[in-house]
Fold:
Amino acid sequence: MRLSPAATVALDGCFAREFPELAVPWQAETPPDPHLLVLNEPLATELGMDPEWLRSPEGLGLLVGTAVADDATPVAQAYAGHQFGNYVPVLGDGRALLLGELGAESRRDLALKGSGRTPFARGGDGLAVVGPMLREYLASEAMHALGIPTTRSLAVVATGRDVQRDTVLPGAVLARVAASHLRVGSFQLAAQQARAAGDLGLLRRLADHAVTRHYPQAAQGDNRYVALFEAVVDAQASLVARWMLIGFVHGVMNTDNMTISGETIDYGPCAFMEAYDPATVFSSIDYAGRYAYGNQPRIAQWNLARFAEALLPLFADDQAQAVTLATDALEGFLPRYQAFWSAGMAAKFGLSEGGAATSVVDDALVLLRENAVDFTSFFRALSAAGRDDSASARAMFAAPAEFDEWLGRWQALGPDPDAMDRVNPVYIPRNHLVEQALTAATGGDLASVQRLLDVIGEPYRERVGLESYAAPAPSDFGAYRTFCGT
Structure:
């Protein structure tokens, strides 16, 4: 069904219009019985949408992609990408659609996930199910509340369609909002097409689009394309440092899952680390630990190297000069990441950067790993120790004497417990609580999902009666594994 532009949300088809080489016009499949599971009313209001209208049949039509304005052009985006280090020349949105861009000044993409098969489905059914779509909603909204750049979840709509997976599960569509869906993989495909055609036109247009949309300051420099690359390097260094500071494990850091905007995207097998261990892996398909918690900075730099390779022809006509420019910019990633990490970690410990703080932080992380201490709980217990109540923190260590020695060194540096509480969350989406909520929601009970959303929506404010939401998983929860269901 098509609606007149006045009857629905205005969606500009900028990407569809400007990059037909990277987009296939497509329509969402019509779900048999759509009904709203969860709506992000604050986000809807921020985007200029009426939440009550979104709850109407017409609004639901927009949220599943079957009722869009006449001048909208939904598309499946095309991109390439390295998946677990292996290059795939054509990936693309197999079960997603970009409906269009919202807003005239601060543009935001509105996209759907699970809206049906597209030409990029590669044998898949194009559908999604309730659990994984709600997982992305929970994870992305938790990241937003934690202050970490991320795509946002506008709504999850049940389709009324049964979907065959290992068992039959209820289908759903996620409506996602992003600064854009430009990925490293978008540029890899554009560069691939440029090489095949012997024409840099598409690659140059895509880079210019990224500059205009995300990094207009790059246009002021001597070489806008090198400046674009440097801006993305900086954004990703900051983003990954923020992941590391709260124990987030993305799980599938393929190049098609790295945004140019610097937002976290695609929450398939993600999870939050509990016991501190750099080798932490949750994804059931990451057999070698490529995307382990401690590997994330290195993988981000590897992905950025692939981005540099795609942009190389734009850096300079002379290939040797282009390689030098790319290498110099790429080598800035680890120092930038380390600067973000060091500043953030010093803040978590309530300390000023540098000097003795560096060794105190490093030694603490060794103790956390050796004692399998819960990463999130530790910092709140430590701030209590900064107020002369060290019992909870000491109880986390099998050898309290070692902790006591370290604690004395830390206290001698004059930590600020109040500042610590402003940057260390009480609540994260604990993996066992997420699983409990998703199991209940798959069975039709959304109360646990809504309660969890309420809790993680204010992660830094400790509240009486929510102690179970702050606690790590019970011992009988076992080793946690995630699956790329989104």
The longest strand covers residues 152-164. The radius of gyration is 23 Å. The mean pLDDT is 96.
